[in-house]
Amino acid sequence: MADFKDLVSNLNSKIEAADPEKMKGVSAVYQFDLSGDNGGVFHVNIDDGKATVVEEAHDSPNITISMAADDFEAMLDGKLNATSAFMAGKLKVKGDMSLAMKLQSLLG
User: Fold this and answer.
1) Of 37, 59, 103, 108, which residue is the least packed, with the fewest Cβ within 10 Å?
2) How far apart are CA 105 and CA 108, in angstroms?
3) What are the distances in angstroms from CA 80 to CA 7, 46, 70?
4) Which residue(s) pair with 42 in the sheet?
5) What pLDDT, on a 0 to 100 scale, did the predictor assign at position 55?
6) What is the distance between the alpha carbons of residues 17 and 19, in angstroms, rounded to a whole number?
7) What one-character-per-residue DSSP string does 33-92 give?
8) Residue 107 pLDDT more than 70?
9) Which residues contact 79 (CB under 8 A, 6 or more apart)?
10) In a 10 Å sphere around its CB, with 0-12 CB exposed, 13-18 middle and 19+ buried, how is residue 21 labelled?
11) Does domain 4-107 correspond to CATH entry 3.30.1050.10?
12) Which H or E run contains 30?
């Protein structure tokens, strides 16, 4: 089980490995609210091909994704599909749903 810093680091690695072309034209703030022992709040600022992870809450994110830290780790490891997690109630979205749909393709 990864701690909060490891989860953020893992996400950062995925973002660095992602194709910046997929993020072109996207300008949004994704906030993640992770619950559980290794939980915490952070946000990802995507601005036209460049993504930055910030380990704090954002004042006005475009979308907030809430889930258990364990489920977030499983999603990053490819063991949990985001759509399945949403349908099972393990992932909750507040804000722009179209951004939630884009997230997997942006990082994949």
Assistant:
1) 59
2) 5
3) 15, 23, 10
4) 32
5) 94
6) 7
7) EEESTT-EEEEEEEETTEEEEESS--SS-SEEEEEEHHHHHHHHTTSS-HHHHHHTTSEE
8) no
9) none
10) exposed
11) yes
12) strand 27-35
Here the tokens at position 62 are 């475009």
Which tops the pLDDT comparison, 23 or 12? 12
Single pTM value for the model:
0.91
Q: Is the pLDDT of residue 105 over 80?
A: no
pLDDT of residue 79: 93
In the numeric block, which tokens belong to residue 47? 């601005």
Say if residue 108's pLDDT is above 60: no
HSE-up of 101 (CA within 13 Å, CB side)?
3
**Beta strands across the sheet bearing 40-47:** 50-54, 40-47, 27-35, 63-68, 91-95
Domain positions in the chain are 4-107
The β-bridge relationship of strands 27-35 and 63-68 is: parallel
